Every structure is written in C-alpha cells, then in structure tokens.
C-alpha cells in the first residue's frame, strides 16, 4: 500500500500548530506499523507532500525542476525536493508564490490552488502516484479533487471546519483546473464563493475528523459552519467518522524531555514546578496555566474575564500570541503578582509550563481534537476543559475537570472545583497518577487510518 498525505505544514520542517504536529507524527507511525507487519517492499510506502516554503527547516534534495503545463504559462518554474526521515518520504513542491517569510498570507486561496493543481502532475512525474491520497484541511482540498478525478482513492481529514479557503467564484474557479460541472451548488459553490473545504468533502471517498465527538458536533448548525447539511448526508452514507489524534511520545515525554528537570513520578514533578515558580517569581499557590493561540475559538477571553475570581486561589501563567485585544488584556493582568504572560511561541517554555503547572485551562468554544490537554496530562498537569469536541473524548472525569457552558462563570466554577481537589492531596495525587498513565500514543489512531484505507481498497 502506498499512502500519500497532503498538507500545508509538517513538523519539523514547517509548523504553525496542531496540523503540523499531526503530519509530523501520523505518517511516521504508519510507516512503523507497516514495517512491523512485514510490509517493507517498494509497494509499501508512506509519504507526505507539502509546499517548499522559503522558511522550510531543512534542505531537500532537488529531484526535478521545470514547467508544469497544468499550471498555465505564467506559473514559472516548479522545483520538487525530497527529504527522508523515520521511514517517511517527504516531498516538497517549490512555487514562487511560497518564496516568502512564514507560512500563511492573505492570498492563500490562490497559493494553495496552485499547490493543489501541482500535486498530481508532480506525483506522475516522479512515478509516485499513491493507492490512497489523504488530504488534510482546506489547503489540500483541490489536490484531493484532482486525485479523485484521476481514480485514486481519497480520504479527507477536517482538522478545523472554521477555516474553509473561500474566494469569489468568478475569480477562483479559473485557478482550479477543474471541469465546469464542479462549480454548482452540488459541487464547490458555497453562498456564491468557491470553497476548498467543500472540495475535500465532495470529492473524498471518506471524510474523517480528529475526534468522534467533533464528528457528531459538525452535523449540527452550532458547529457545522454552514456545511452541516453536506456533513449530515456524508454521515448518513457512512462516509464520516472521527479518529482521535495521537501525541508524539518522544517529543512529549517528561522522563526524557531536555527542556525540564525530567521526571516520571509525583516527587519529580515538584522540581519542574519549582523551576516554573522561580522563572516567573510566583508564590506558593498552585499554578493554573495555558499555552494557546489567543483567539476567540480558544475561549481566552473567558479566562481573562474570570481572572478576578481566580487570582485569590491560583497563580496563572499564559503563553501565546494572536488577537491584539486579548494580548493587551493579558499584558495588563501580568502586572498582578500572581499572573505571568509570555507573548508569542516558545517551544522550550511551553515544555516548562506543561511540566511545572498544576492545572491547565482550555475553555475552548470548540476544539476539534486538541493536543494541549493530552500533553498536560502526560506531564501530570490536570486539565480544566469545556465539554466540546476532542476534550470530551480525551479528558476522563476522574482525571480532569469539565464544564458545559462557554462562560467565565462556568470556567471559574470548574477551576474552584479543581482548587478544592488540589487541597485534598489524596484525591489530587490519584488524579495525577491516572493522568500520567493514560495512553495517547499514535499506535491506535494510525492503525485505524490504515484499516480505513484498506476498506476503501476493498470497496
């Protein structure tokens, strides 16, 4: 079986968030499973294809350079490079539209339209056409559409339905290379726009989301982002399912983590807590932390509004960047002796926070899967989460603390419950021990995806 993943980012070469983490871990685990099953021949390969960004970490070996007629006369030269790591072949498509700092830009619908059109011609040039093409999020929607039309079995994974890659139909339809019949209401059209997320949904043989609860939520108007009708149909046809994400067990391992005083038990965690207290000058109250994008989805505004109720009982540490209004509010609160705010992305600091905090707040309005709650539990930090999406599927009630309503009052009440549990050392320590024993490895999810690919091949 030859499997090709398509995505806009892949750790450690390019990453802005959870999608990059998934594309960095899932293919490697699938390759390991195939090897373990004795499938080591040339016909068994797991690959990833992604844009060759100017900021790409690593230097791919150039395999091909030239013009692709499928992209039109004005596209310029295309470069294709390769890296191999952990049994996975990584292919990178270099287009001039990606020769900029960073990953994402305002004209991304145009950029990923070009990338999506280039995927199949590149794979044919390299004799690398897969048995199954697995596209991830809207940036892969067009690539998946072309693969489906070429007769390749396809899986499309929704990592976040809120981002759909929409653009004016009259303009964007010229960028796709798709036949005219694809642009009606039963195709890519969505309220007058062309919708790349819908392209993935329409052309996939099977659609997955990154947790079973989110798969149910997106068939409702509250979470369906206007596509719930299509998703209800896919669910009714048996073509929609949820497979929970895993966690990179090597990158997130408190026993071997180079960024913290490594630990594997309750006694060792105290050293990590001491490091975090010293770094931010915190007192001896327990530490409630979050590492997050500062965005409406993540409910950080709820945390800010609840701050007055929380600081009498908790030290609060926040790491993240994004919305300037949320950033300003957190900067203001950081003047309080029990509140620390570090702006931006800082991988090493994130590890120290996960390890040193006592509780971890995730008041998300919606959360397709979430990795932070899994990381925090692996590091013995108990999550306080809203009951939505993957947070429901991964946070047992005898480990973490869950609340239903997206309000600062509900968040504060759950944090107070956690604070009471913290004062009952026997209760708290038993929760921490259960948290650290949970299995969030990629073994199970990777095997589920491989089984799905095989079912599609048998259908």
Layout of helices and strands, plus pairs?
Elements: E1 2-6, H1 18-36, E2 45-51, E3 61-66, E4 78-85, E5 88-94, H2 108-125, E6 132-136, H3 141-149, E7 153-158, E8 166-168, H4 169-172, E9 189-190, E10 193-195, H5 196-203, E11 206-209, H6 212-217, H7 228-236, E12 240-242, H8 266-280, E13 287-291, H9 300-310, E14 315-320, H10 324-333, E15 339-343, H11 347-356, E16 359-362, H12 372-378, E17 382-386, H13 389-394, E18 401-403, H14 408-423, H15 425-437, H16 443-458
Characterization of this structure:
The chain is 39% helix and 19% strand. Helix 2 runs parallel beside helix 3 (141-149) and helix 3 (141-149) runs parallel beside helix 5 (196-203). With 459 residues, the protein is α/β, with parallel strands linked by helices. The protein has helices spanning 18-36, 108-125, 141-149, 169-172, 196-203, 212-217, 228-236, 266-280, 300-310, 324-333, 347-356, 372-378, 389-394, 408-423, 425-437, 443-458; strands at residues 2-6, 45-51, 61-66, 78-85, 88-94, 132-136, 153-158, 166-168, 189-190, 193-195, 206-209, 240-242, 287-291, 315-320, 339-343, 359-362, 382-386, 401-403. The chain is built from 16 helices and 18 strands. The chain has a 9-stranded mixed sheet, with helices on both faces. The protein has a 6-stranded parallel sheet with strand order 15-14-13-16-17-18, with helices on both faces. It has a 3-stranded antiparallel sheet with strand order 8-10-9. The mean pLDDT is 94. Strand 17 (382-386), helix 13 (389-394) and strand 18 form a beta-alpha-beta unit. The protein folds into 2 domains: 2-246 and 442-458, Glycogen Phosphorylase B (Rossmann fold, 3-Layer(aba) Sandwich), CATH 3.40.50; 266-437, Rossmann fold, CATH 3.40.50.2000.
């Amino acid at each position: 079986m030859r499997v090709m993943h398509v995505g806009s980012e892949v750790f450690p070469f390019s990453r802005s968030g959870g999608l990059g983490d998934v594309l960095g871990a899932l293919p490697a685990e699938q390759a390991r499973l195939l090897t373990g099953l004795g499938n080591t021949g040339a016909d068994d390969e797991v690959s990833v294809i992604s844009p060759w960004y100017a900021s790409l970490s690593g230097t791919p070996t150039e395999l091909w350079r030239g013009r692709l007629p499928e992209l039109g006369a004005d596209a310029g030269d295309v470069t294709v490079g390769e890296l191999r790591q952990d049994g996975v072949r990584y292919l990178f498509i270099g287009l001039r539209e990606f020769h900029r700092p960073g990953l994402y830009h305002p004209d991304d619908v145009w950029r990923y339209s070009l990338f999506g059109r280039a995927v199949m011609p590149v794979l044919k040039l390299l004799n690398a056409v897969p048995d199954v093409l697995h596209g991830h999020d809207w940036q892969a929607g067009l690539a998946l559409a072309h693969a489906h039309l070429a007769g390749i079995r396809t899986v499309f994974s929704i990592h976040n339905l809120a981002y759909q890659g929409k653009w004016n139909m009259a303009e964007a339809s010229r960028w796709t290379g798709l036949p005219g019949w694809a642009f009606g209401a039963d195709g890519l059209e969505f309220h007058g726009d062309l919708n790349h997320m819908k392209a993935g949904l329409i052309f996939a043989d099977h659609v997955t989301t990154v947790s079973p609860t989110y798969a149910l939520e997106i068939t409702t108007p509250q979470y369906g982002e206007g596509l719930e009708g299509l998703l209800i149909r896919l669910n009714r046809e048996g073509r929609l399912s949820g497979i929970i994400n895993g966690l990179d067990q090597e990158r997130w391992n408190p026993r071997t983590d180079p960024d913290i005083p490594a630990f594997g038990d309750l006694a060792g965690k105290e050293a990590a807590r001491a490091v975090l207290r010293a770094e931010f000058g915190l007192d001896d109250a327990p530490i409630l932390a979050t590492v997050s994008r500062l965005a409406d989805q993540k409910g950080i505004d709820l945390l800010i509004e609840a701050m007055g109720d929380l600081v009498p009982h908790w030290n609060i540490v926040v790491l993240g960047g994004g919305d300037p209004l949320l950033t300003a509010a957190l900067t203001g609160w950081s003047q309080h002796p029990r509140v620390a705010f570090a702006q931006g992305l800082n991988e090493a600091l994130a590890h120290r926070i996960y390890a040193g905090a006592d509780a971890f707040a995730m008041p998300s309005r919606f959360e397709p899967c979430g990795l932070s709650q899994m990381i925090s539990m692996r590091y013995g930090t108990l999550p306080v989460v809203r009951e939505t999406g993957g947070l429901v599927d991964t946070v047992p009630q005898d480990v973490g603390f869950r609340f239903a309503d997206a309000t600062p009052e509900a968040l504060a009440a759950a944090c107070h419950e956690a604070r009471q549990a913290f004062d009952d050392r026997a209760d708290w320590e038993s929760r921490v021990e259960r948290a650290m024993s949970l299995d969030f490895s990629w073994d199970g999810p990777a095997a589920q995806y491989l089984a799905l690919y095989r079912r599609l091949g048998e259908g």
